[in-house]
């Protein structure tokens, strides 16, 4: 019989919700913390602490109610997580969070590990931005070092004359440094979620091929349609990072595959990842179950792919185009389609509201059904 452990989840979004559901399936309890009383995670957790992320007494309450704690996004003030870590084990450790929540520290850590990243400079004002763009050569991408996600706090600069205005127009550039990064003419974007336990045992989930639209993940295709060599390289990179940062839990590594087959790391996330949602139906163990297992000291699960699987995100756009009433029956009529809705009470264009996963005999078939299912949901 399992000990009656409680997993604390800092953050109440869909990642927390799916982690809580996986934990509950194995009869672990969960407690979430999020400012909203009615958030995706609170709807399925055993307890919820409704408080701001920087409320240290609320963080302590989460720690008191939990045996072990994780966080489901990295755009948080690490102070609260560090306070929790003084009281209960936090996985991955706050030092991993510190690296992943700042693009400058992240890229420098990757450099130290000898892992390839796109050429970049760190700039703090308009003059430095102009110099960096001239040195790297257009096009470049400017990204704030912190607080950006889903393409927010980013801008592509195609003419050096636009460098200064792009820097000045970047939301957050007056508060934190900015990364100027060479634009990668990639063949494909891929990601790997790597699971690592306290003893250092690691497993990588199958490589996902990711398509982004407007900076937001749109589709994950598994197996990725790249060579076995590229896949092996992507998995190696993810494991080197998991080891290098001493991750206990999950780390998601987003990568660009260049046209000559080189793998460059774009971004790290020390948590379950949107591009790993396919693992719920696609793999023997999901990324959420895997994290729960590691947190409570249970053995790492089998990460094998059951069959080719595609995930498409459902953004608020689908609600917008249907006056708030997507056609779910048409989705569920399609063979092999699984619908996940996150319980968000209001929609807005670009907001992640749910996803559809489809497994099939071939990746092409799964992709065709997934896209058709989403189109059917959005049809008026
Ligand atoms: P990020 O927030 O850094 O993950 O960026 C969001 C998306 O913007 C990525 O998944 C890419 O599709 C695109 N992107 C970001 N940086 C670059 C780059 N240096 N070159 C080309 N595309 C990029």
Tell me briefly what this model is:
The protein is α+β, with helices and mostly antiparallel strands. The protein contains 13 helices and 17 strands. Strands 9, 10, 11, 12, 13, 14, 15, 16 and 17 form a 9-stranded antiparallel beta sheet that branches. It has a 4-stranded parallel beta sheet with strand order 3-2-1-4, sandwiched between helices.
Characterise the protein shown here:
By secondary structure, the protein is an alpha+beta fold. The protein is 32% helix and 27% strand. Strands 9, 10, 11, 12, 13, 14, 15, 16 and 17 form a nine-stranded antiparallel sheet that branches. Strands 3-2-1-4 form a four-stranded parallel sheet, with helices on both faces. Strands 5-8-6-7 form a four-stranded antiparallel sheet, with helices on one face. Strand 13 and strand 14 form a beta hairpin. The radius of gyration is 20 Å and the shape is globular. The mean pLDDT is 96. Bound molecules: adenosine monophosphate. Adenosine monophosphate binds next to strand 6 and strand 14. The site of adenosine monophosphate has 13 residues, from strand 6 and strand 14.
Topology of this protein?
Blueprint: E1 6-10, H1 14-25, E2 29-34, E3 47-50, H2 56-65, E4 68-71, H3 78-87, H4 94-100, H5 103-112, E5 120-123, H6 126-136, E6 140-144, E7 154-157, H7 163-169, E8 178-182, E9 186-196, E10 202-204, E11 208-213, E12 216-222, H8 228-244, E13 249-258, E14 263-269, H9 279-282, H10 287-295, E15 309-315, H11 316-320, H12 328-332, E16 337-341, E17 352-359, H13 363-378
Parallel strand pairs: 1-2, 1-4, 2-3
Antiparallel strand pairs: 5-8, 6-7, 6-8, 9-10, 9-11, 9-13, 11-12, 12-15, 13-14, 15-17, 16-17
This protein binds adenosine monophosphate.
């Amino acid at each position: 019989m399992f000990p009656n452990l409680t997993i604390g989840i800092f953050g109440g979004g869909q990642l927390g919700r799916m982690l809580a559901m996986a934990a509950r399936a194995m009869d672990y309890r969960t407690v979430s913390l999020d400012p909203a009383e009615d958030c995706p995670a609170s709807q399925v957790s055993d307890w919820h602490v409704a408080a701001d992320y920087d409320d240290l007494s609320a963080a302590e309450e989460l720690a008191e109610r939990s045996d072990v704690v994780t966080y489901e996004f990295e755009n948080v003030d690490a102070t609260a997580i560090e306070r929790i870590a003084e009281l209960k084990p936090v996985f991955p450790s706050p030092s991993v969070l510190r690296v992943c929540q700042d693009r400058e520290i992240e890229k420098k850590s990757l450099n130290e590990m000898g892992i390839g990243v796109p050429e970049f400079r760190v700039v703090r004002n308009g003059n430095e931005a102009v110099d960096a763009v001239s040195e790297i050569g257009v096009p470049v991408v400017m990204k704030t070092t912190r607080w950006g996600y889903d393409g927010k706090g980013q801008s592509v600069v195609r003419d050096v004359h636009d460098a200064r205005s792009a820097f000045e127009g970047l939301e957050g550039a007056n508060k934190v440094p900015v990364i100027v990064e060479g634009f990668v003419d990639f063949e494909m974007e891929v990601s790997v979620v790597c699971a690592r336990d306290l003893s250092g045992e690691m497993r990588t989930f199958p490589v996902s091929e990711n398509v982004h639209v407007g900076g937001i993940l749109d589709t994950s295709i598994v197996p990725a349609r790249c060579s076995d060599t590229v896949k092996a390289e992507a998995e190696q990179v993810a494991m080197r990072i998991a080891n290098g940062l001493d991750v206990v839990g999950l780390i998601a590594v987003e990568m660009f595959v260049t046209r000559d087959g080189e793998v460059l790391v774009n971004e790290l996330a020390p948590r379950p990842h949107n591009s790993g949602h396919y693992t719920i139906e696609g793999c023997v163990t999901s990324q959420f179950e895997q994290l729960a297992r590691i947190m409570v000291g249970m053995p790492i699960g089998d990460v094998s792919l059951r069959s080719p699987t595609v995930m498409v995100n459902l953004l608020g756009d689908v609600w917008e185009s249907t006056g708030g009433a997507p056609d779910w029956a048409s989705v569920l009529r399609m063979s092999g389609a699984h619908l996940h809705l996150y319980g968000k009470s209001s929609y807005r264009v670009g907001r992640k509201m749910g996803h559809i996963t489809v497994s099939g005999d071939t990746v092409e078939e799964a992709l065709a059904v997934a896209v058709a299912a989403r189109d059917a949901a959005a049809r008026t």
